[in-house]
Amino acid sequence: MTRLRLGEILIQQGIISPAQLNQAIEAQKKQHGRVGEVLVQLGLIKEIDIVVALAKQLNIPYISHDSGLLKPQNPDLLKLLPRDFAQKNYVLPLSLNNNSLTCAIFDPLDLLLIDNMRKITGHDLNLVLATKKDIARAIEESYTKGGQSSLSEAVQDSYEVTPKEHVVSERKEGDEAELSIDRLIERAGEAPVVKLVDLIIRQAIDQRASDIHIESYKEKISVRYRIDGALYEIPPPARHLLLPIVSRIKILAKLDIAEKRLPQDGAIAAKLEDRTVDLRVSTIPTIWGEKVVLRILDQGAVNLDLATLGFDVKQLELVRKGIKSPYGLCFVTGPTGSGKSTTLYSALREIIDSTKNIMTAEDPVEYKLEGVNQIHVKPDIGLTFAAALRSFLRQDPDIIMVGEVRDLETAQICIRAALTGHLVLSTLHTNDAASAITRLLDIGIPSYLLTPSLNVVIAQRLARKLCLNCKEAFEPSADQRTKFGLRCELIYRPKGCDKCNHTGYKGRLALGEVLSVDDEVRAMIAKNALYTDIKEVARKNGMATLFETGLKKVEEGLTSIDEILTVTLL
User: Fold this and answer.
1) Pairing of strands 91-97, 289-297
2) I need a surface site. Which of 17, 122, 208, 550 has the fewest CB within 10 A?
């Protein structure tokens, strides 16, 4: 019996007409996709129409995600098919009975795929059908749940075999078991190393980590994730895999694997099921080998919305007033890792307008915004912040964002732009809002130029939010009430549960100190007043300090006293 093609099955069941099939075939010649995919793209059918038609024609059961049947009965089944293979081909093992493996599949007409699955799993196949969307969702849920155990197993496996070339009888400071470049590349491409690196990155993304630290010590490797601002150690792979792991990361980041004496920087685009996550890679030599840090920039996991960052109503009103002014300077200040970039991007998203020309100079561009002209500065070729800004002023901008004001020249151009009718947003590294003003004066900006140009200064920190699932209430002591001025009967502290990895915290919120530059503050700037005097005037006019903002979050049950004391000064 001749096997029917998908198009013939769809015509036979009255789902499409011969004319529509011909239309899809013509489009297929240009797009080089499958007929079914082209029919869906043309809007002639839906994906579920294909699956239901095939199920009916081939007498194969159809199951949906909502049925609850689209999940492996045993997590060990996931070992039969690698995650990458499952994702690429939209297949998922569901159950094993004797030697018969039941698998969900989207395309039962792909005989080559089915034959490959038999060889990989070593079992006979019993097929059930599901849509691509449902299978992709089930793969993400199944493999993610097994992610921790999969990584643990991969790490455990790394200790079982120690290759001869990595055995060092007596390791000395700075000594590394060297391999030839060809052998290093070969080892970096071996399945266990590829799997380990992939699982380390995937688990970090799943756990909302912002950074991955891979460090080398005399007897071991240390792997740590930075989650909500704190570093947490995970089970590390065997010490002998350091070179292959670092080399694998360097290959992905297009770095020189032979260069181990100098720091290097690169980038990786990690493709997940529904999005691409950017990783910034930095390597640096230490006495026991190279340390690697991967910064995870997951745009899909960041909510760039000013209203949800953590500012209270009054602070939000002052921030919006500053960024919606037709011209002037708006600064966000704080230490590294305090969320300055996220606040700037959120501010930009709020004021994006097709009638405005918005340009940014960043190092590097962390998140890509539609409707914004973003420039990655490159000091090594002369494209500094100052050089980019000078060019911007010849590009008819309305709004300019500068990643950071680091020197007098950049500050001068920002002031000039603000005074000539442009809105300028940037960052500084100072401890609070008032000291940002004195920092600008100290680096050489005359007070008569700063006074008319400055709109608002936002100092901020990030505090961990208490896990909603396990936070516990308690009554503060009399000493705490007196010392912190607490007015509420109960406050909360962390406890720890599975949902927050037993840390007691999940997610972070911004603590803001918003200094709106009014006439009284301008008069203080004109007199070159001390930052303590400027701060006192701002507080008298209603500005809440970082600690006072944090205390309010404690009383609202969002974070803990200990966390506020960790990130702010009393």
Assistant:
1) unpaired
2) 122
- Own/partner contacts of 338-341, CB < 8 Å, gap of 24 or more, are 338/460, 338/461, 338/462, 339/309, 339/460, 339/461, 339/462, 339/508, 339/510, 340/427, 340/460, 341/366, 341/367, 341/403, 341/427
Give the pTM.
0.68
Note the helical H segments in 230-358: 242-252, 313-323, 340-351
pLDDT in tens, 262-281: 999 999 888 776 677 889 99
Q: Provide the token pair at 70.
A: 């689209």
* Residue pair 445/426 in contact by the 8 Å Cβ criterion: no
Report the distance separating Cα 4 and Cα 196, nearest Å. 43
Sheet holding 91-97, edge to edge: 91-97, 100-105, 124-129
Whether 231 contacts 213, CB under 8 Å: yes
pLDDT band at 445 (very low <50, low <70, confident <90, very high): very high
pLDDT at 533 over 60: yes
Nearest residue to 90 via CA among 161, 27, 37, 165: 37
Return the beta strands (E) in 247-305 as ranges: 264-271, 276-286, 289-297
Cα angle value 89/92/95 (rounded, 5°): 150
Rounded-to-integer distance, Cα 309 and Cα 316, Å: 10
Q: What angle do CA 283, 243, 181 make, to 5 degrees?
A: 100
